[in-house]
Amino acid sequence: MDLRAILMGLAFALMWSSAFTSARMIVADAPPLYALSLRFLISGLIGIAIARALGQSWVLTPAQWRATIVFGISQNALYLGLNFVAMQTVEASVAAIIASSMPLLVALSGWLILREYLRPLAIAGLFAGFAGVALIMGARITGGLDLFGVGLCVLGVVSLTVATMSMRGASGTGGNLLTIVGMQMLVGAAILIVPAMLLEVPEVNWTWQLVGAFSYTVLVPGLAATWVWFLLVARIGAVQAATFHFLNPFFGVAIAALLLGEVLGIFDVIGVLVIMGGILAVQRARIP
Question: How far apart are CA 79 and CA 157, in angstroms?
Answer without folding.
Answer: 6
